[in-house]
Write a structure and sequence with these properties.
This protein is low in regular secondary structure and 137 residues long. The chain contains 1 helix and no strands.
């Protein structure tokens, strides 16, 4: 890239000089060596790109099959251990024993006095219309 820009700038300068009147001749240097591209590698230049690029993706690794978990869980036998027996010791601060018989049913509800009902019909209100306006002669 930089070499092509340099050659364009040299060409523009040469045309500009050719259009100017020549007052003195420019010296020529025929014995200078022509630099080649391989003699001056750019520092930090990238290595050349490969001519053929890989196509496609590598095959995916094979994944081993996962064993299925049974959905039905077999019942686990379980038995409660026997309850320990305690001697009849008085327990200070214990609640009194519950009654052996419980009352059945609910007590009757208290009587609620009847509430007077409000009429649901609205009485009709007579429509009031003003007398017709009379113009006086």
């Amino acid at each position: 890239m930089a070499l092509s820009f340099a050659s364009i700038d040299v060409g523009v300068a040469a045309r500009h000089l050719l259009q100017q009147p020549q007052t003195q001749s420019l010296p020529s240097f025929p014995n200078l060596p022509t630099p080649s591209r391989s003699l001056f590698p750019w520092p930090g230049a990238l290595p050349p790109l490969p001519t053929t690029l890989p196509t496609g993706l590598p095959p995916l690794p094979s994944i081993p099959s996962v064993p299925t978990i049974p959905t039905a869980i077999p019942p686990i036998p379980f038995s409660f251990p026997p309850l320990p027996s305690f001697p009849n010791l008085p327990n200070l601060g214990a609640l009194p024993p519950l009654p052996t018989t419980f009352p059945r049913g609910l007590p009757p509800l208290p009587s609620i006095p009847s509430v007077p009902t409000t009429p649901t019909t609205v009485p009709s209100i007579p429509f009031f219309s003003p007398p017709p306006f009379r113009s006086t002669p």
